[in-house]
Design a protein that fits this description.
6-stranded parallel sheet, 8 strands, TIM Barrel, alpha/beta, globular, two-stranded parallel sheet
Length: 302
């Protein structure tokens, strides 16, 4: 089995005592592709400060990727190599595009440095409205332009933090499949960060994949989820969108250390979830959820 997880915030946790990989943020039993997100949406931070933050996080990622011997996945060829050689691998992503792309060369330079997944807004910015804002103005002209440029370059667009209108407009602009790297389903939990049925259906119909998020706020409305609550999201996806629609997007190191009851940071969270899924679904479905769906998406879109 090859594991793939579309979102973690572990770059933010790297310091002199702790590296990019921990005992809980990747599988201890299977080769693993991890999307490492650089969060650059600190509220009130100026555009130059956000760019400086991004460059620092990129330097941290590149140094740690080299130290750990992770395969840099920037193309389908890289991904096939990691799978065939059973190597752990990584993809560099950006979470929050505010203040970063005034100069058109910045996107090109980031692509050359390895950027392959882009969420253009975490908080509402000059590009798009986010799901955290009660006012939903959708994409701005600059946001529309960035969506077009990124799509044409082969950068995969991530809609997880976008407002409903921003997501709908993005889907209208780009002809390519998109992903929701770490979003659950609003029919199961009403949080605005989760996808409504209408948008989830469009993402899947386009060939995209949705990442199952472990953040308690997005699992159940009472904010005290257990594993049964998590399985409700899995069941909803399987029943409504099919077994090729869902992957992992666990948001590890982005949940303030809080997870559904039964999960913790004492051991690999991925291995624990796979063990749970194996008790409820066939081995072929578990393999798809744990990595194959994301792998197939990347092979078709990198």
């Amino acid at each position: 089995m090859f594991i793939a997880d579309m979102h973690c915030d572990s770059i933010l946790e790297v310091n002199s005592q702790r590296g990019l990989r921990s005992k809980y943020n990747m599988s201890g039993e299977h080769p693993h592709l991890q999307f490492f997100a650089s969060w650059v949406a600190c509220k009130g931070e100026s555009a130059p400060a956000r760019r400086k933050r991004l460059m620092r996080l990129l330097d941290v990622y590149l140094a740690e990727r080299s130290r750990l011997g992770l395969v840099a996945v920037e193309s389908a060829v890289d991904l096939n190599f990691a799978i065939e050689c059973e190597k752990d691998a990584s993809i560099f992503a950006i979470e929050g595009g505010g203040g970063l792309f005034a100069d058109s060369e910045e996107l090109i330079n980031l692509y050359r440095a390895g950027l392959r997944v882009l969420g253009i807004a975490w908080d509402t910015n000059e590009l798009a409205s986010s799901s955290f804002d009660t006012v939903d103005n959708g994409l701005s002209p600059a946001g529309r332009e960035l969506v077009t440029r990124a799509s044409e370059m082969g950068i995969i667009l991530d809609v997880s933090h976008l407002s409903d209108r921003s997501t709908a407009e993005l889907l209208d602009i780009t002809p390519y499949p998109v992903i929701a790297t770490h979003s659950n389903f609003r029919e199961i939990c009403s949080h605005p960060r989760n996808l409504p049925r209408s948008l989830a259906s469009k993402i899947v119909a386009r060939g995209g994949v949705i990442g199952l998020n472990l953040c308690p706020d997005f699992v159940t409305d009472d904010c005290k989820p257990d594993m049964t609550d998590l399985l409700r999201h899995v069941d909803f996806a399987l029943e409504n969108y099919g077994e090729d629609s869902l992957g992992f997007g666990f948001d590890i190191d982005g949940t303030d250390g809080k997870y559904p009851k039964g999960l913790g940071e004492e051991c690999s969270i991925h291995d624990s979830v796979i063990e749970l899924l194996s008790k409820h679904y066939s081995s072929s479905v578990v393999e798809k959820l744990a990595g194959l769906n994301v792998v197939n998406f990347l092979k078709n879109n990198l």
